[in-house]
Amino acid sequence: MPAGVLGELIVSALDNNGGASHQGPAQAAAEYELIRQVARRLGFDGHGMLLAGGTYASLQALQLAKAHAIPEWIARGPSAVTAQPRIYYADSVHFSVDRAAQVIGLGKASLVPMASVGRGELDSVALARQIEADLDAGHHPLAIVATAGTTGTGAIDRLQPLADLCERFELWFHIDACYGGAAALLEHLKPRFAGLERADSLCVDLHKWFFMPLTAGILLTRHEGLAEEHFGIEASYIPDIGFAEPYRRGIPTSRRGSALAAWFALRTMGWESVTEAIQRNIDLTRRLESLLKDRGFRIMPDGELSIACARWEPADLPPEALDHLQEEISQEVCRAGTAWFATTRHAGQTWLRFNMVNLTTQAHHMDLLAEAVATTARQLSS
Ligand SMILES: Cc1ncc(COP(=O)(O)O)c(C=O)c1O
After folding, report:
1. What is the pLDDT of residues 88-119, one digit of tens each?
2. Which helix (H) or strand (E) holds 55?
3. Ligand 1 pocket member 179 (CB < 6 A)
4. Angle between helices 54-69 and 95-103 (to 10 degrees)
5. Which residues, listed in sequence order, are joined to residue 145 by a DSSP beta bridge?
6. Do residues 230 and 248 make contact, with C-beta atoms less than 8 angstroms apart?
7. Rounded to two decimals, what is the model's pTM?
8. CA-to-CA distance for 85 and 82, rounded, in angstroms?
9. Left (φ > 0), alpha (ψ -120 to 50) or beta: where does 277 sit?
10. Mutate which of 51, 178, 207, 344 to test ligand 1's pocket (most atoms within 8 Å of Cβ)?
């Protein structure tokens, strides 16, 4: 959002610390209001804080999940663990979840990536069986991490059955909606996010599909009390002015006052501009799928968000050569400077991956892109 740039200028000029309200009162008020509005629009009854991106938000969320499941950890540390903790998610999850689990000291044996189904969703039936088997083996199931908008293919997990499992087995329910959460603002997609309100914690990145300046990740939780209990400290050298202080509810102390820039952008442009832009990105993505299909590409079905995946599959090429060809197409188009896009692995195959998260992308860019990709694909396979 262009107004965010102006907001950034103000944030830099003020150079106030966004970590404590007495040092950055405008930032603190903007953050409080921003989080309140985002939570309300997502239909989430909780509050939270701004962090330096989704990676930090998931880190903080899993630390809370651990504190919730193993309360003695705070006093005793690792010796409080009496059984192998287990965290469940689809194999399509963003790598930041693995990283977070490692940072909070859980180790690889705690991570249970489940084979995904469809476009990359968690299979709740297989997951129920896995949790039961883990309980039989004496493990300690701790949390399910769902993704509402996977990075690779834009898959949205079915949240209700996963929330049901969390209730049944008393697990923490964390939702990574860093990329896809923005689409929950669209009326016709809201039903696909049903169950989001049942999360214990939820992360969304304003700097992704809300078009705000980097870095603005949000962590929302229904357990603000736990956050204060876990991260709360008494520091006599920091004045207590009775405001909900971010430095008492999360990992960071000093922070850039990024909320002011995001709030500035929203006040100027309005939520309607944001939702229109999200819808425009989705429409452009469907248009690209159709253009590529017309040119002979196989399209990954059931796309809902702004990620299109496609494959160029000339006959008589073995699977490894086909995978390699997708890599070559992406590299060649990028090398020519026409467009930038990556590939992704899905269900054992390499796919061309196009992700629209830009305010200025237009229909003619899709036409140009489809033509460049098709021409390159034909040249490389002739
Ligand atoms: C689904 C998902 N989760 C988490 C992240 C990490 O977010 P960040 O880059 O803000 O740390 C990403 C980044 O692409 C993502 O797509």
Report:
1. 999 999 999 999 999 999 989 999 999 999 99
2. helix 54-69
3. yes
4. 50
5. 174
6. no
7. 0.97
8. 9
9. alpha
10. 178
For ligand 1, whether the C-beta of 323 sits within 6 Å is: no
Q: Which of 254, 263, 284 is nearest to 218 (CA)?
A: 263
pLDDT score, position 235: 82
**Residue 176 Cβ < 6 Å to ligand 1:** yes
Q: Quick one: which H or E segment has residue 266?
A: helix 258-294
How far apart, in whole angstroms, are the C-alpha atoms of residue 182 and residue 282?
A: 11
Amino acid at 288: L
Residue 178 in contact with ligand 1 by CB distance below 6 A: yes
Instruction: Tell me if 217 CB under 6 Å of ligand 1.
Output: yes
CA-based angle 245:250:254, to the nearest 5? 65
Nearest CA to ligand 1 atom 10: 53
Q: Specify the pairing of strand 172-176 against strand 298-299.
A: unpaired
Nearest 10 degrees: CA dihedral of 10, 15, 17, 23? -90
Six-digit token string for 172: 């923490």
Q: Would you say the CB of residue 54 lies under 6 angstroms from ligand 1?
A: yes
Task: Please give the distance, rounded to the nearest whole angstrom, from the Cα atom of residue 254 to the centre of ligand 1.
Answer: 22
Could you give the 3-state DSSP secondary structure of residue 310?
A: strand
203 Cα–ligand 1 center, Å: 9
* Residue whose tokens read 């490692």: 102
Residue 245 is classified by DSSP as -
Residue to probe by mutation, ligand 1, list 157, 208, 218, 353, most atoms within 8 Å of CB: 208
Strand-pair partners of 114: 90
| Phi–psi pair at 150, nearest 5 degrees | -70, 155
pLDDT category, 232, cuts 50, 70, 90?
confident
Beta bridge partners, 85, equal: 140
**pLDDT tens column, 136-185:** 999 999 999 999 999 999 999 999 999 999 999 999 999 999 999 999 99
CA distance 45 to 56: 21
Closest CA to 304 of 337, 323, 279: 279
- Helix (DSSP H) and strand (DSSP E) numbers for the chain: 11, 11
Q: Which of 213, 89, 58 is nearest to 155 (CA)?
A: 89
Strand 111-114 and strand 217-221: the pairing is unpaired
For residue 51, the one-letter residue type is L
